[in-house]
Specification:
Strand content of chain B: 15-25%
Shape of chain A: globular
Helix content of chain A: 25-40%
CATH topology of the largest domain in chain A: Rossmann fold
Helix content of chain B: 25-40%
Bound molecules: adenosine-5'-triphosphate, magnesium ion
Strand order of the largest sheet of chain B: 2-1-3-10-4
Membrane topology (chains C, D): Multi-pass membrane protein
Subcellular location (chains C, D): Cell membrane
Distance between the termini of chain A: 33 Å
Protein name (chains C, D): Binding-protein-dependent transport systems inner membrane component
Keywords (chains C, D): Cell membrane, Membrane, Transmembrane, Transmembrane helix, Transport
Distance between the termini of chain B: 23 Å
Order of helices and strands of chain A: EEEHEEEHHHEHEHEEH
Largest interface: C-D, 74 and 73 residues
CATH class of the largest domain in chain A: Alpha Beta
Oligomer: heteropentamer
Number of helices of chain B: 12
Chains: A alpha/beta (about 240), B alpha/beta (about 290), C mainly alpha (about 250)
Structural class of chain B: alpha/beta
Radius of gyration of chain A: 18 Å
Strand order of the largest sheet of chain A: 6-7-8-3-9-10
Order of helices and strands of chain B: EHHEHEHEEEHEHEHEEHHHHH
InterPro entries (chains C, D): MetI-like, MetI-like_sf
């Protein structure tokens, strides 16, 4: 279990995240939804130690950890591909740094390229592919980490509906097969409802959890059912309220 | 054969001709010596390196040697190459400078700060002029003179820049220092470190013999000597060097032995113009083969 | 590492180096007229402070003026070379040549042009400082991302505005790297300039001391010169900190 | 502008400059020992080619070795200074000092350490080349985007790998800018080095010729030296084109 | 009217856009939808002359133009904010370069910051705001241009549902009030249906127009009506077919 208590971070004296508490079940898929600029990316940065928190504690499986830097794989909102490496080299970076045997991972990367519709582009430099392709490559790189927690910051925002849907199911199956604990930020409520075990609706900065919606465990889901339409409406109206404050 | 290393005061020039004659004509060899000749980066280097025994012999100037002795550097004069001052106060002739007092109110350049400027002051005092502007021209001698940026320069050699001026079509004029109240001194001498002298006394003695022989041979067959030199130093321009040689021939030292009296006179003069702070007793730094 | 701790460590390192040098001088018995021990250099640098300060003031002014003029010339030249590649092609050989000319070849010309005053020294220093600044600035301008260039083109930005808002800030870290090199080599530039025609300045003092075999004074001059260099270096570092605020 | 057109324009510009120089020499009647006309320099550079080539070969080797050693030393030093700011603090004064030392202060020491062979010259050249490379590389490393740094930290990249995949490519344009400055100042570096007791080399030839007022030969040597410099400059430019493929 | 004929662009010999024809009504709002990597951004780059086309012609109001560089305002997929300028300075760049009087534009920018929910962040550097805020700032900058055509490449992809909706209506009103010709790329079919006069569904690279759907002129629209749901299904299935090729 991942437990955050009283997490906090200020920028220029203004709190962006303040007394933030959160419990996440190991092996669950949680999705964070919140207004733009509310502090979601900042939260992930705190979790991974990318920026230092000012106060608060983190526990992972009952043990206090300074941060999740070495436990979690993190896909940031920017793609952060290295412009001098090809897509394949970029995706294989985590493998370069690990001490495990390579062959298996090589195969894994090739498989992912295929499933992500990037086959044929392995040797392209990031500068020579489209925005969506860069995003997919960054996602592959994140999946190449073999870590227990996966943090995804708007991983599919630049993709068309079909590619997005196919990658959503891929994410689902990866999470199920490998029992990863996934935290994902998205602005797409359908996506949240399709993937999440738990949806966390966040407030404006200073960010708090406004609503915590536990979804039924059936997957894949039929989002056209009235149950989900009701939840979608609820999230939308909550967000709307947030924006009006 | 025994090896000796020698560092010139500057790049090889006509003043060093006897060394090349001795080397090429096998005089060193006959004395059981093998001499390697090196050029320095700067005129003060050879003395420093000789004093610290990194080379065996160096060509230095008498004023420089006295300055070194005055500042406690253990250096020994062991032989002579040019027995009189070459340094002159050079100007372009036909411009109303006939006698030193004509320099009153003029701009006087000098080559080496800390030496030639003081020498100029001494020169002025001896020759009774007071007002003049001193300018450090470094070694841009001919350009400074010919463009009229200075009226005269202290430091050029009478067997060299004088000839160069002529070759560029100017009439040079110059005052020879020893004729205008500055004590006579040995322009180029061989020096060595005190410990080197102790260790290699025999070799140095042979070196003195050899170099004197070479000087004599040069005097006897000047044309041949010049040819030997020009062959050994191919970058030397023939015309200039030939003209320079004619003026140098008489100036090569006639004996390797130092005149303690002459040196002491110059050392006292150096102290009087402030070139050295501590007086120097020259007999302690001169070695005449005994 | 905190600032204080870092300073302590770095001071310790420096001290260690000086001790090694001191030890080497004493143990290997290196004569003072070849390499004076640091203690000796320091002693001279302090006891002769008035003399050194007198000369350093002159050299300092030359350096400042040299830096000023070289920046003034470097920025437009780099910009023109950037805008017109043919000018770059024509000028880069000359720039490289300017680095290959030793003082003594230039000295007569400088004297004819500038006389013996301060300007020949300033020119000499400027020539040396100029080069790293031009090269770095040019490289910096060229490194500007083409997406941004196109954006400015699309916005119809006139050149001066593009320069002000895009190219200049983009090339600034390069420019400052060049300036760091520049202010450091400015020291030797001024010294070299002073070998001809100076009556005052650390370079003048150095040759004078060298001719009189006062090598400790030569090194004390180097110490003072280094102090000027380090001062300027730190200054550029401070400018860097103030202007490159967006990089962190 | 096409490559051909650019080359034509730049050649024209260069020619124009040379004509101006030639004209100035002739009209203002500048004596040959102050500034030889370019026609004269060219004439000497061609007719004395064997002599110049003989000396240039030596200088060329010194330059190459100097560049080699300074790169070899600069990269690790810059990296260590980057990783340990205290080392940077301790060493940057020394670096600045290294640029403030005139040859004549160093020459006796170099002779004591390295003797009269090629190594004292190489060392002198290396000291001069070294500096812009270290400074630029360090600035380049420091300019690395913190988002990427954090990414590598998160990926658990060991330092060597981070260096190889992130820092080095990031700093490469800076390094190459420094190298461009370096190879150009290498020419004067080797020349200055040759003042330390050389028997051969363009620097040696230059002082010799200068002392003998063969100023045309001095400038012919500068011309040859510049040719070496430009060759290296173009080489670095080509390396830049080949390695920085991702910047366009 | 904007008329493109036989437009073409190859990368490494492979055509990305090939014999592309398109007619756009002046003052209309067209939305391009297509698989990730099909060539949408490349098309916009060609239109603005950001990259050079290999063949084809462009006409604007009956006149052949080399490109639309000076006629169109272009918001690229990357935000391309200058890191050394504050958000307000970034947004005001087009004004700096124009010769018109400033006061009015100054007000306009302030108004847009307000409406985009960026008030209070005018003086922040781009490095100190969230991904969505950067995107909004880039959009403001594009709107600060006063040009007849507006090209928007996924302008709202990083925004939450509510912000997105409010900016959508803003875009609509801007287009209507100022009679701009808008071309917009999006992956959000709802967004397309909400905004567009014409939806252009694109094929995989080499990109062609697969379907051109002219929507009823009523705006704002009720996307829950069966008409729109049918259109949405149609677009989805077309995209799906594209992905399977
Ligand atoms: N370096 C910084 N300095 C000052 N404020 C900052 C800094 N970084 C982030 N902020 C502020 O923190 C807030 C939250 O930013 P964050 O990137 O976490 O938002 P977000 O929820 O990820 O938004 P989005 O959905 O748009 O990506 C923003 O208001 C932003 O201005
Ligand atoms: N410089 C380049 N060199 C080679 N290929 C390129 C280059 N730029 C783009 N491409 C190729 O052109 C194709 C289209 O790219 P483009 O950016 O136009 O796609 P897009 O439709 O905007 O995709 P997305 O929705 O992901 O942004 C891609 O397959 C890409 O690999
Ligand atoms: Mg974010
Ligand atoms: Mg795109």
């Amino acid at each position: 279990m991942l437990r955050l208590s009283h997490l906090g971070k200020k920028y220029n004296g203004l709190p962006v995240i303040d007394q933030f508490d959160l419990d996440i079940e190991k092996g669950s898929f949680s999705v964070l939804i919140g207004p733009s600029g509310c502090g979601k990316s900042t939260l992930f940065d705190l979790l991974t130690g990318t920026i230092e928190r000012e106060y608060g504690t983190m526990e992972w499986i009952g043990e206090a950890v300074p941060h999740l830097g070495q436990i979690a794989a993190y896909m940031q909102q920017k793609d952060l591909l290295l412009p001098w490496l090809s897509l394949m080299q970029n995706a294989m970076l985590p493998q370069v740094f690990s001490k495990e045997k390579h062959l298996r991972k090589n195969k894994k990367a090739k498989g992912l390229f295929e499933r992500f519709g990037l086959n044929g582009f392995e040797d392209y430099l990031p500068g020579a592919v489209s925005g969506g392709m860069k995003q997919r490559c960054a996602l592959i790189r994140t999946l190449m980490f073999e870590r227990e927690i996966v943090l995804l910051d708007e991983p599919l925002s630049a993709l068309d509906a079909i590619t997005r849907r196919s990658l959503q199911s891929l994410l689902l199956s990866l999470q199920k097969d490998f029992k990863k604990t996934v935290l994902m930020i998205t602005h797409d409520i359908d996506e949240a409802l399709y993937l999440a075990d738990t949806v966390l609706v966040l407030t404006q900065a200073p960010m708090k959890i406004r609503d915590r919606i536990t979804l039924p465990s059936e997957k894949p889901r039929n989002l056209d059912s009235s149950e989900y339409i009701a939840i979608k409406k609820r999230i939308l109206s909550e967000l709307e309220e947030e924006m009006q404050l | 054969v025994d090896k000796l290393s020698l560092m010139l005061d500057w790049f090889p020039n006509i003043d060093h001709l006897p060394l090349f004659v001795a080397k090429e004509k096998g005089i060193f060899e006959r004395h059981g010596l093998e001499l390697s000749i090196l050029s320095p980066s700067e005129t003060a280097d050879p003395l420093k390196l000789a004093a610290s025994s990194h080379i065996d012999l160096a060509i230095a100037y008498e004023p420089q040697t006295i300055i070194a002795a005055s500042s406690g550097i253990e250096i020994k004069g062991v032989g002579r190459l040019i027995g009189h001052p070459l340094t002159t106060l050079l100007f372009i002739g036909g411009k109303n400078i006939e006698k030193p007092s004509d320099l009153e109110g003029k701009k006087i350049g000098y080559t080496v700060p800390g030496m030639m400027d003081l020498l100029t002051d001494g020169f002025a005092k001896e020759n009774g002029f007071q007002k003049y502007e001193l300018i450090n021209v470094g070694f841009t001698i001919i350009p400074s003179l010919t463009t009229g940026k200075v009226d005269a320069i202290m430091g050029p050699y009478k067997n060299y820049e004088v000839v160069e001026l002529e070759q560029h079509g100017y009439t040079p004029g110059y005052f020879e220092l020893e004729k205008y109240g500055i004590p006579d001194y040995d322009e180029l001498v061989f020096v060595t470190g005190a410990t080197t002298l102790k260790d290699k006394e025999r070799l140095i003695r042979r070196f003195r013999k050899a170099i004197q022989e070479a000087i004599e041979m040069t005097r006897k067959t000047p044309e041949e000597a010049l040819e030997v030199y020009l062959k050994a130093v191919p970058e030397a321009p023939r015309e200039l060097e030939t003209a320079a040689f004619a003026r140098t021939l008489d100036l090569y030292a006639h004996t390797q032995d130092f005149s303690v009296e002459k040196w002491q006179k110059f050392a006292d003069f150096a102290a009087s113009i402030g070139m050295i702070d501590k007086e120097v007793l020259v007999h302690a730094i001169l070695w005449n083969g005994k | 590492m905190s600032f204080v701790k870092r300073t302590v460590v770095s001071t310790g390192l420096l001290l260690l180096l000086f001790l090694l040098w001191e030890g080497a001088c004493r143990l290997a018995n290196i004569p003072i007229f070849i390499l004076p021990a640091p203690s000796r250099v320091l002693f001279v640098a302090v006891t002769q402070a008035p003399l050194l300060a007198y000369h350093a003031a002159m050299t300092g002014i030359e350096i400042i003026l040299g830096i000023f003029f070289s920046i003034t010339a470097a920025i437009p030249l780099a910009v023109v070379m950037f805008v017109y590649p043919s000018v770059e092609q024509a000028f880069s050989p000359l720039l490289v040549a300017s680095q290959a000319i030793p003082v003594f070849a230039l000295a007569p010309l400088l004297i004819v042009w500038f006389g013996y005053g301060i300007w020949s020294k300033v020119f000499m220093a400027a020539i040396i400082i100029f080069f790293p600044i031009v090269v770095n600035l040019l490289e910096g301008l060229k490194s500007c991302d083409s997406d941004y260039r196109k954006l400015f083109h699309l916005m119809g930005a006139p050149f001066f505005q593009s320069f002000r808002y895009l190219y200049w800030p983009w090339a600034l870290p390069y420019f400052l790297a060049g300036l760091k090199v520049g202010v450091s080599v400015a020291t030797i530039g001024a010294v070299i300039g002073e070998w001809v025609g100076a009556q005052r300045g650390l370079g003048y003092l150095m040759i004078q001391s060298n001719a009189r075999l006062r090598v400790d004074l030569v090194f004390a001059s180097i110490l003072w010169l280094t102090a000027i260099g380090i001062f300027l270096w730190i200054l550029v570092g401070a400018i860097e900190k103030r202007t490159l605020t967006w990089t962190r």
